Prior knowledge:
Number of strands of chain A: 5
Mean pLDDT of chain A: 88
Largest interface: A-B, 23 and 29 residues
Oligomer: heterodimer
Number of domains of chain B: 3
Distance between the termini of chain A: 24 Å
Number of helices of chain B: 12
Low-confidence stretches of chain B: none
Largest sheet of chain A: 5 strands, mixed
Strand content of chain A: 35-45%
Amino acid sequence: xxxxxxxxxxxxxxxxxxxxxxxxxxxxxxxxxxxxxxxxxxxxxxxxxxxxxxxxxxxxxxxxxxxxxxxxxxxxxxxxxxxxxxxxxxxxxxxxxxxxx
Amino acid sequence: xxxxxxxxxxxxxxxxxxxxxxxxxxxxxxxxxxxxxxxxxxxxxxxxxxxxxxxxxxxxxxxxxxxxxxxxxxxxxxxxxxxxxxxxxxxxxxxxxxxxxxxxxxxxxxxxxxxxxxxxxxxxxxxxxxxxxxxxxxxxxxxxxxxxxxxxxxxxxxxxxxxxxxxxxxxxxxxxxxxxxxxxxxxxxxxxxxxxxxxxxxxxxxxxxxxxxxxxxxxxxxxxxxxxxxxxxxxxxxxxxxxxxxxxxxxxxxxxxxxxxxxxxxxxxxxxxxxxxxxxxxxxxxxxxxxxxxxxxxxxxxxxxxxxxxxxxxxxxxxxxxxxxxxxxxxxxxxxxxxxxxxxxxxxxxxxxxxxxxxxxxxxxxxxxxxxxxxxxxxxxxxxxxxxxxxxxxxxxxxxxxxxxxxxxxxxxxxxxxxxxxxxxxxxxxxxxxxxxxxxxxxxxxxxxxxxxxxxxxxxxxxxxxxxxxxxxxxxxxxxxxxxxxxxxxxxxxxxxxxxxxxxxxxxxxxxxxxxxxxxxxxxxxxxxxxxxxxxxxxxxxxxxxxxxxxxxxxxxxxxxxxxxxxxxxxxxxxxxxxxxxxxxxxxxxxxxxxxxxxxxxxxxxxxxxxxxxxxxxxxxxxxxxxxxxxxxxxxxxxxxxxxxxxxxxxxxxxxxxxxxxxxxxxxxxxxxxxxxxxxxxxxxxxxxxxxxxxxxxxxxxxxxxxxxxx
Lengths: 101, 711
């Protein structure tokens, strides 16, 4: 199972809807989107209710996005499944990411 | 049909099918035309033959009919005339005799007939006899004397009509007066009983005709007779004339149309009264004795007036025609052998057929020659078409064949071929393409060689890196084999040659064991380099008396400062005081370890230790990490791992999962660390069932065997 990325752009807002697995093999794709699409974005959201699995590589991608947004606006991670939330909790990312259940 | 055949065969077949198909159609049409013509010719010949036969036969029969009709009509007419003459003479004589009887005194001639038996033969003279051989009475004598006055008339008639043989008068009184040369006498003869007398007596006032009969004297003749009546109509005598039969017959038989024809007379009842065989002994004059299907022939005789028809006479097929003789009611017939009439037809027919057969044979030969000619021309044209098709196909497949050889050679690695563009068509373009491919392949192979060399080099370097990494991790067997209080085992399976997970264990002093299990986000060489950095920093800063939270805070700051790639490390470090079993630990975003303890009954089970973890290392500067602690009793074990364990997936992306991990651990509490970890890895591999390993797997198990004595 791979991952699908859907982009919803608004006025200064951008939402990535992620489904599937965000792992070593799919993270570079999301990293590419983050590297190229964040210019001028004030509110960035990751809608991850469809995300089944999040690996450390995926965390690293979200961290990279958070670091970019720290300088230009806000970032939210929306509706993670319990299993994914557990990963955020274990890694302590709940402290640095704005996660809305 | 064309499946599985070579192009040449396909081309040849296609062209042959088209060419030969067309040819076949054309030739078939020709053959049909020829056969139709031949058939028509045969039919025409046949028709000509039939027409010729019909025409000839019809003509001949018509001619025969005309000839025969002329004869029978003429003869019937002649006979009729002759009989009419005789009839006229008889009527005249009867009138004369009537006058004699009416007024005997008026006839005073002194004629003296002699008695028949005394009369001379061969001299025509008057003679008499009396019926029954009686003698002449006076009255009879007077009557005879009167009758004898007819002599001059009879004499004149006889002289002028040679056919008349006998003129005679029979009286009712019994006198028979004759004027003839015959002198046959019979005493028993009674003329009043004879058919001629009776017939004439019963038909007064007309001449009656007796059909051929043989009289009592053996003489065959035809008789015409007429009654003599008085004023009151009583028959007093009958006057008759015998007409020589020979005379009639000769006339009849002379009226043929050749020696194969015959003429005959039929009486009123169709008896043969004149016929060539009439003198034969036992001759039967009845009609049915001579004709087959007598009734049909009779019908034809009455119906076919003036027309000829076929009949079978005395066993021979004849063509016959008839004409009536009105005065007697008889019929004159002429019959000709059909064979003789149609003989010329047969000849003509045979000749015609011969000519036509010869013509037909010639035609047939001509047609046969034509067919052979057409057929051989078909074979020649078909053979030429095959040759041309084959040659044409070769002209197409020849270059293809060579291109195939070139391609095969390229496949074997020969890129230096001289590939000639033989034609300007698609095959030529194919040759050009192949040449281009050949040149491109030279470049590609060169490139491939370089790339392969590079890959091999990188592969070599990676394996070197893997070895280096492996050597960075502490060897399982060293250096604590001789430390009885410790039984520790760890293993690491990278997803790529070099991984981002790591473990480490070391003794900062003789009473303490430290171990670290960590996971660097990302894989491969960059991650492993970052891991080396993290591993080194942690080990450097871990001192027997240092606070682990401070160690991680320090390490985090250093890592964050130089982290350009947004790597981060989740790490768990524990330091065990081997004297007391007190464990101090710090957790930077890593999985919680499992602690195996024994309860009062001695039963062992693993429990996940879940104090809240801090943020992963290298994410953010200035993070403060807390040190936690718990106690281990001798025999307790501590199991730590990386997320590659629960997140190992099978082919359907099912995860191995925490539940399976806990169950496995609790099912194998009797295993030593060295037994447990390989078994767990085998279980994970069995679960993955050949699916790719996504993530590095690292695990470590430590057993606190016994407390260390203070020295």
